[in-house]
Amino acid sequence: MRVLIDYRAALRERSGVGEYTHQLVRALLARFPRDGSADSLGVTLFSSSWKDRLGERPELSGAALVDRRVPVRVLNLAWHRLGWPPAETLTGQTFDVTHSMHPLLLPSARAAQVITIHDLNFLAHPERTRAEVRRDYGALARDHAHRADGIIVISKFTAREVERELGIAVDRLTVCTPGAPDWPPRASRPVDGYILFLGTLEPRKNVGGLLDAYDRLLDRVSPAGNRIPDLVLAGKATDESRPWLERIARPPLAGRVRHIGYVDPADRRALYEGAQFLVQPSFEEGFGLPVLEAMTLGVPVVASDRGALPEVLGDAGPLVDPRDPQALAAAMARMIDDDGFAGACAAKGVQRSHDFSWERSAESAFDAYQRASECRRKRTGAA
Which among 51, 293, 300, 360 is placed 20 to 30 Å from 345, CA to CA? Predict the structure, then answer.
């Protein structure tokens, strides 16, 4: 089977979708042979950008590369609105499957077309989106989902959302969750660690609510006499994050909260290891990769009870209403004051992280490719 995967989300700064794309490609390359056998898989990565080049990458050894100097916005407009140019024209090759890492199709004249839906927040809250996501996703996602030969979703939560909001039968969906990194648990919890938030600073991440909770935390006196750790915000700033960044520059948060910007994947492990615990207070997540990464290392997690976060965290940490800063502050306070509770959460998190494997993710994706190919054959009457 020959598959063309849109790698553009991982070309530069790898946030959630980019990291998912990169790691799934690595897992596919590691799991499936390229020898022409029944389960062989030939992977070609597609990239287009006016200034950023894909180039050879050792960690992607085994994948063929197609890199075109076409501006992302121009190509996306043509693909999303016109369904042109097809993959065959752009690459000069033919494929059995094209795989888009977002909800809109990667056009092809002959291949089965698979899309990935991470979440549907763009439908529920278009005001929280920007650029092409705001322009195209809400208007086109339903039509593209119904035309797709296969649909990959990254959590059971997203599967339910797609079934309800887009009217897609559940048997057309393949759940392909992210996998845990191959990190051994850290040796111990740092005494002077910080509270960590990791994610793009955008409205659905509820950064404002986190700052409200942390403000309340600073007003309390720890019964155990523990100092309140500093709060580190790790993630790319957006236009919407300006009020939060201005707020942390003023008392009482000045000197206690710092924004360190986007963190390269190679540096994320060290960032987690220095944290007392992770807090993920999002209004919605299609999965919540930082929660899984933190659990893998034995970093306790406080998360909201929305989206897929309960599905990921399970009983390995407290789940709170993201609209209630007092409840969030109380959960954070318990992580600070109760070492036994924090240790139990860390141990449960490590155990739970074993449920998520990139190898299984690759097998699920391969299954989606096979099902999509069969769907296209039936739809077109091809032999």
Answer: 360
